[in-house]
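Quick one: Autotransporter outer membrane beta-barrel domain-containing protein from Bradyrhizobium sediminis, structure tokens please.
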Amino acid sequence: MTTNWSTGVVPTAGSAVVVNTTLPNPVIINGGNAVADGMSVGLNSTGMLTISNGGTLMSNLASVGNLVGSTGTATITGAGSLWNAQGMAVGYRGAGTLAILNGGAVNTTDWEVSMGDQSGSSGSVTVDGAGSTLTGSDIVVGNGGTGTLMVSNGGTVSATKWTSIIGHSAGSVGTATITGAGSRWSNASDFYVGQNGIGSLTIANGGAVSVAGNVVLGYQAGSSGTATVTGAGSVWTNSGDVDVGRSGSGVLTIANGGAVSAAGFVTLATMAGSVGTLNIGGAAGAAAVAAGTLNAATIQFGAGAGAINFNHTSTSYAFASAISGLGTINQVAGTTILTADSSGFTGATNVSGGRLAVNGSLANSIVTASGGGMLGGNGIVGGIVANAGGIIGPGNSIGTLNVNGNVAFAAGSTYQVEVNAAGQSDKIAASGTATLNGGTVSVLIAPGAFTLGGQYTILTAAGGINGAFAGASATTATPFLALGLTYDPNNVYLGISRSNVTFASAGLTPNQIATGGGADSLALGSSLVGALAYLDLTQASGALDQLSGEVHASAKGVMVEDSRFLREAAMDRLRAAFDGVGAVAMPVMAYAGGEPMLAPATTDRFAAWGRGFGSWGQWNGDGNAATIKRDIGGFFVGADGLVADTWRVGAVSGYSRSNFRVADRNSSGSSDNYHAGLYGGTQWGDLAFRSGLAYTRHDISTGRSVAFPGFADTLKGDYSAGTTQTFGELGYRIKAGQNPLGNLAFEPFANLAYVNLSTNGFTEKGGAAALTSQGGNTGVTFSTLGLRTSTGFTLGNGVNMAARGMLGWRHAFGDTTPVSTVAFTGGSPFSIAGVPVARDGAVADLGLDLNLTPNAALGLTYGGQFGSGVTDQTVRGNFAVRF
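--- reply ---
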């Protein structure tokens, strides 16, 4: 038949219409309405039809690409554009293409929409864009030929009455893809993928398919049906049963967040001779991809060859469907957790990669692990075969895997056992026999304070133990533990005890070695020993530092150093009393006739004085002890008078509080210091002699935190100490005479002080890391050689000012490295060194004194000592007012 519709002129209504023309004279319905009887676009030649801009066409049966050799193309585009037909074949015997775009619609009211209808034909339908729709009583993709359906970008397809099929007849090939958010295919009845031919369905990128009836992939013998649901938001919802391979071959793959649900049963390989495969993630032999989800209460294997493949990348994929029948479960990659009662499954379970955790029941399935695959969980299996490379690790942390049958470990297999300090361990409990032909017990030791010398039951077999494991080794690199296996007729035991490697050998510094020796002296039952034994060498050396109690030794050094504040106060007062070089030119409170009055520091009356001070310092670590930082503040008051006309003798007292911190040892402390002393001195011409004797009581509080894998403790210490010191100084005054800045004078001096710190014993409050000390003494002698200078002058406004300075070299000898001897409860004493007192260092003072008015004076001094690794800076202040 020749074309009877080759322009925009519509044939007589009700006529049979043939479109056998394309460009330059295509048939276009652009906003108009047309009515036809039969409709062929490309009857025996090439035809093109376009319906656009709200145009409509009403016809009875329609074909696009009707006869052999013909080609038909129909495009329905734009909102309101519509082709209504009784039924439609896209590619009846020829090649047909139908595009429904941009809100266009095609409806068939009585019959199917068929793509690739007859053998040798091809039909392709695209439904693209929101509002674009294809509706038929049923949809057949690949009826007898090759059919393709693409639904994308929000397009929709609806089958309103009968079964939709992809790959209907033998020799047919059907491919359907539903892709993109909002794209969907809804079916009011059953749905077959590969009825007699080859069918393929892909739901991707948020597409959706819904089926009100049953689903079959691979319906008849010789057919093949494949469905893939992949991508987040991609959904296939089924209200009935799903058969994957009824008599033919079926494959269902759910991956990358796709989801399939079935209200009824899911059956794999229903009939004898069929093949049915469910892939979670990728297929067996393919690369693993992210898992999808199957929501179905039950999966049953039929009479054919069925398999479930878990080949995904998830680290905790839970599979909740109950599995029954005779088939195969393959764990290939990822971690799969079976939570349901699948005791009705009687097939084989193979674990060749990843981890399969049976938290439900596979009570009648023998599980074989090989090639790096791992079996775990707290449920029950029908048997265990661990081949070379296979790993059995009961529990999900620590747990028991029950076996309704026998257990066999081959050479090269691994039994992974986790143990903890509470005496719990993984275990296999078998009702049958355990045959051990080698294999290694790999022990994962959870952090904790272990009770060494105990044993764990790791395998029981009611039918008896045959053979032995090759040995046991720890997965953690701890050299302090020794593992051993023992056997009785029905049990395998794991014993954990101390090795012959000492904790002291983990030490890299003297303090670490000493602390390790103290820990080595403890009984095996000590929780501290059990915790240290878990560690590797690096962890152990760090733990020994925390346990050392180093802060107590370093605090001794700080208190010895801080003894200088009292003697400096006494020496400064003696210099001022004799108008010495570098003296603080501050008035004192003098008493005459019972009345106090502000008087010069050189007064010959009984005088009282006071001063405040503050200091902050840091003693750097020496590679053994860690850096300690200290701040201190306080005050001194004193009184003195003339004795034998030439001697000035007095007493001094005061209070200070110091805070110290050893950050690298998680330790800190404080000391309340109460000072008292006597001082005296005289002047023989230009030669000065100054001396004193003092005592300081220290009330010390410390806090430490100890934390390493498997152990934590908080320690507090409260104890007292006393510092006794005696000191003396000789200085010689040299006058330089007048200069532009006033009267300049110098004093070379030599100072000697002996300091003894006596620390009382104490016991820290806390747990197993608490230390006990018997106390001890630390004696240090300080010698200082230096030069003082001062000058005084009057400012233009009548204010008198004195400037002073000192520079010296200080040397310390004696117990310059403070040591504390401590012990753990029940252990032997060991000695820990603190940060050393600076053996050599520079000392300096700079000060200004101002007589602001006849009744008010202010003095400020900055001082410091600086040595190798030591910085200690001080600010002192004096203020006097007469009322």
